[in-house]
Amino acid sequence: MHAGLISAFLVALTPLAAQSSKAENSWAPLNFLLGEWVGEGEGKPGQGSGGFSFRPDLGQNILVRTNRADYPATKDRPAFSHADLMIVYREPAGNRLRATYFDNEGHVIQYGVEASGGPGAVQFLSDVVPSSPRYRMTYRKTGPDIVTLTFEIAPAGKPEAFSTYIEARARRK
User: Which end of the chain, N or C, is less surrounded by CB atoms within 10 Å?
Assistant: First the structure.
């Protein structure tokens, strides 16, 4: 009787193990980003502090990125904070990764997500929306626990005319 229960239990677990392995592999282009990161050094648009994390959620069916950056006051502007949440998911009908981004400034942005230039690099490229800017975020692994982030914006009507808005570096916590 016990052997039958154990066999039934193992048979029931087999699909779960296969799903878990499949879910882990589905994030392969983003694996280098999993965990908590803290910003370091100076970047553009100026000195700030903050960090971000990428974590699997909902049975590893999505990745959740949270981000916060705090910028001190300067002679030209008051201190401010930026916070955002991004959910990365696999399209149900395919193998493409997508992301939806939300921030405390009211932006909602849809991104396509792709490996960029080999392992340890990934690009989030926003969809073209007429009369709206276009955004591109690129993460690159530059050391065992170091990544760089470049955030670029293209003006409305010129979806390929990107210019750098933020350059930053982060280390794994």
Answer: N
Q: CATH number of the domain that 158 lies in?
A: 2.40.128.20
Confirm if 106 and 95 have CB atoms less than 8 A apart: no
Task: State how many domains the chain has.
Answer: 1
pLDDT in tens, 43-82: 555 677 899 999 999 999 999 999 998 888 889 889 989 9
**67 in a structural domain:** yes
CA angle 35, 136, 128 (to 5 degrees): 130
The first and second tokens of residue 150, run together, are 């470049």
What pTM does this model have? 0.81
Find out whether 73 and 79 touch, Cβ atoms under 8 Å. yes
Pairing type for strands 108-115 and 134-143 reads unpaired
Burial of 41 by CB count in 10 Å (0-12 exposed, 13-18 middle, 19+ buried)?
Answer: exposed
